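Take one record.
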Amino acid sequence: MVRAVLGGAFDPVHLGHVAMGAAVLDRGLARTLLVVPAGRSPHKDDCLAPANDRLAMCRAAFAHLPDLRIDERELRRPGPSFTVDTLRELQNENPADELVLVLGADNLDGFPNWRDPDAVLGLASLAILARNGVVPDNEALDRAGIPADRAVLVTDFDHRVSSTEVRGMLDSGHLPASLLPAEVAAYIRSRHLYGM
């Protein structure tokens, strides 16, 4: 079975994240999708929302998608969350499965700085989606050290929203309902997250 893995801080999860997951499933790039909230990202400052709130928001945001499971392993793992560790665990649990790591094209430049990027490419192929105006191409793959045969480029997708942008709006007292799943907006309001 082909399983896609969509990881991230999801701080907070927004409609762009949901659209990425749906695009991978709708295009038949994977049979199932695992959404993996990071416990502590090695590439970002600490999350503003606690792990249990980010998990609850992910459950609410992705509840309508079929063939999807929220995977809590990185939230339970001590220390920084490294994608390569998660992929190794998933491969060990289901050796017959083929793994596809979902990545926004705006994160490609940072890929060489990940922990053991060669091992990541050995464990999973990549589904790289255009995001925030950045469209993936072969030059971007070359710069990131990703062989073309290890990646599928989804160039007709773009959802211009980021968690940083959403947090900035929330911090200024504005709840950007058009950028968040309705359930997530309601959760943020009810839990007074991000200064709301």
Q: What stands out?
A: Helices lie at 15-26, 51-62, 73-76, 83-93, 117-123, 138-144, 163-171, 182-191. The chain has a mean pLDDT of 93. The chain is about 35% helix and 15% strand. The CA atoms of residues 57 and 184 lie 6 Å apart.
